[in-house]
């Protein structure tokens, strides 16, 4: 066991302040060691996706998702008319090829070595064109306790042109403090209809300007993949040529033995955690939220689950219930006497 695992078990090995001493004890191959060093220093690492059937999978995914969008992506005129970014979330639940990419055993084994806990995929996003998404840290959308036990793996499903809106990222930004609502003086009540990251965007812009940090672009070739750390700022570049596609898949991974929550709708200091109900895409099993060594619900009084689509947050339901009770009480009162 490395010093980092022994002294700081709640910190990912690859992001540990004891990383240098842990590196020799992580049982990595030479290529895996290079990935670990890049991920630690820059917050991302590039590798060739290890799947002998990848080309065939990609073509089947493109065909299936093109039918879903009802767009002929081979026709530049049809692609040019797309307004905004297109995505399909969690296609792994219906598409076996998407699931196979997300559940690639060699990728999961690599991530497990790098982080010191067993990785599992919990979300996929598939994109036919560039997102043009504002730079952001995934730690606002989904995080863990202990923090930083989350990462993303982005896979290029075609050669990416600089004009197609490639993935952009800010090297080294993963080492910055993770911003939470209290840093912005926000007391956020759960409102899933609101943008999770919008209040943070001016802060991220100011931080990159202050640091003089310029974005890098990942003009990947087909089959290349990029791992990014939980707090790395990244986004989608401008689509200069709207006729170009940018087929890609993102898989987000958590690690076992954590609590999983949405920081944007949480105030942990007062016990308000918007806990996520996480499913392991590899097994289909529910993954329990754990704090240290016990289920978090047995320790936390105010844990709130992720709502079903369209569900109102708890505080709105309580207000509505109070209003109904007040109306019933008024209706039950006898009318006032008139003299």
Automatic annotation (TrEMBL):
<keyword id="KW-0560">Oxidoreductase</keyword>
<dbReference type="GO" id="GO:0005506">
    <property type="term" value="F:iron ion binding"/>
</dbReference>
<protein>
    <submittedName>
        <fullName>Phytanoyl-CoA dioxygenase (PhyH)</fullName>
    </submittedName>
</protein>
<dbReference type="Pfam" id="PF05721">
    <property type="entry name" value="PhyH"/>
</dbReference>
<dbReference type="GO" id="GO:0016706">
    <property type="term" value="F:2-oxoglutarate-dependent dioxygenase activity"/>
</dbReference>
<keyword id="KW-0223">Dioxygenase</keyword>
<dbReference type="InterPro" id="IPR008775">
    <property type="entry name" value="Phytyl_CoA_dOase-like"/>
</dbReference>
């Amino acid at each position: 066991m490395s010093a980092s695992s022994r002294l700081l078990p709640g910190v990912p090995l690859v992001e540990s302040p004891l990383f240098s001493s842990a590196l020799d004890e992580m049982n990595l191959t030479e290529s895996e060691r290079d990935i670990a060093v890049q991920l630690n220093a820059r917050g991302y690492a590039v590798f060739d996706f290890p799947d002998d059937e990848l080309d065939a999978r990609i073509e089947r995914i493109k065909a299936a998702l093109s039918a879903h969008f009802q767009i002929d992506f081979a026709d530049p005129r049809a692609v040019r008319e797309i307004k905004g970014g297109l995505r399909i979330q969690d296609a792994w639940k219906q598409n076996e090829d998407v699931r196979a990419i997300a559940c690639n055993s060699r990728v999961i084994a690599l991530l497990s070595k790098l982080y010191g806990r067993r990785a599992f995929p919990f979300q996929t996003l598939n994109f036919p064109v560039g997102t043009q998404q504002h730079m952001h840290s995934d730690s606002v959308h989904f995080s863990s306790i202990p923090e930083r036990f989350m990462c993303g793996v982005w896979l290029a499903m075609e050669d990416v042109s600089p004009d197609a809106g490639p993935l952009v990222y800010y090297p080294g930004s993963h080492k910055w403090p993770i911003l939470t609502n209290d840093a912005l003086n926000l007391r956020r009540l759960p409102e899933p209809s609101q943008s999770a990251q919008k209040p943070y965007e001016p802060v991220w812009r100011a931080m990159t300007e202050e640091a003089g940090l310029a974005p890098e672009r990942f003009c990947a070739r087909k089959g290349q993949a990029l791992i990014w750390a939980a707090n790395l700022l990244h986004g989608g570049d401008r689509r200069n040529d709207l006729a170009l596609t940018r087929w890609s898949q993102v898989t987000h991974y958590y690690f076992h033995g954590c609590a999983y929550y949405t920081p944007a709708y949480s105030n942990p200091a007062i016990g308000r955690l918007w806990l996520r109900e996480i499913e392991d895409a590899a097994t289909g099993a529910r993954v329990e939220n754990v704090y240290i060594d016990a289920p978090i619900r047995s320790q936390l009084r105010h844990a709130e689950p992720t709502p079903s689509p369209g569900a109102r947050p708890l505080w709105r339901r309580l207000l509505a219930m109070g209003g109904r009770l007040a109306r019933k009480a008024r209706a039950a009162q006898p009318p006032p006497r008139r003299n």
